[in-house]
Amino acid sequence: xxxxxxxxxxxxxxxxxxxxxxxxxxxxxxxxxxxxxxxxxxxxxxxxxxxxxxxxxxxxxxxxxxxxxxxxxxxxxxxxxxxxxxxxxxxxxxxxxxxxxxxxxxxxxxxxxxxxxxxxxxxxxxxxxxxxxxxxxxxxxxxxxxxxxxxxxxxxxxxxxxxxxxxxxxxxxxxxxxxxxxxxxxxxxxxxxxxxxxxxxxxxxxxxxxxxxxxxxxxxxxxxxxxxxxxxxxxxxxxxxxxxxxxxxxxxxxxxxxxxxxxxxxxxxxxxxxxxxxxxxxxxxxxxxx
Length: 290
What we know:
mainly alpha
């Protein structure tokens, strides 16, 4: 796998755009995404560092070895099952991501966690690799790992939560993209309830509930924007979910507001190899989907 990916990286320096696009698409399908606004040379360096670190872990001389020391490697079958989930949802399989089982490193309040080390390399830790939902939890963390280096997004938890079957997590999971959102919302609802019980709903109870109402309104807006972008892409013949997963919030808003997303993407593809690859890979022709 590593040798194959290195060949893809070499092809990114080819003089022929079609060869570059194919290599970029293959790396994309392996979960090594090019970041928004990332120059190709920087992407090549980052992807090469990722592969170098994978080799170091395999050889037992990783600079990050102290992080996972004492943890157990996750079963290969589990990793493959999780990769199949991400493929079905977002068209990538990142089986190269080092995954370990460790209750300590996963933390007391999570079933799995992704560490972003030195801003370029992901490590995943599961609390219980034998759990019934372990593949879904791992798929969730793989979604985070594939977007290492991406800017913070208002949808940081929305896309990963789709890898899980829990309706509660899908509906409310995106509130947990920032711990301050559920903390403020909970405090707001609690304060509002206290004021209401004391017969002081006006004006104190209403004021107390304002932060919770604002958080809910923000989430409704985000989901409407995403739904509009998805609908417009689908109507233009694109595969919407894999594409939306890979782009930033501003790009999602632009597509949601566009009267003709195909033209918007065509213009973006003229200015960016990243978007040219997306247009061919997820567009109506599906020309270079590996």
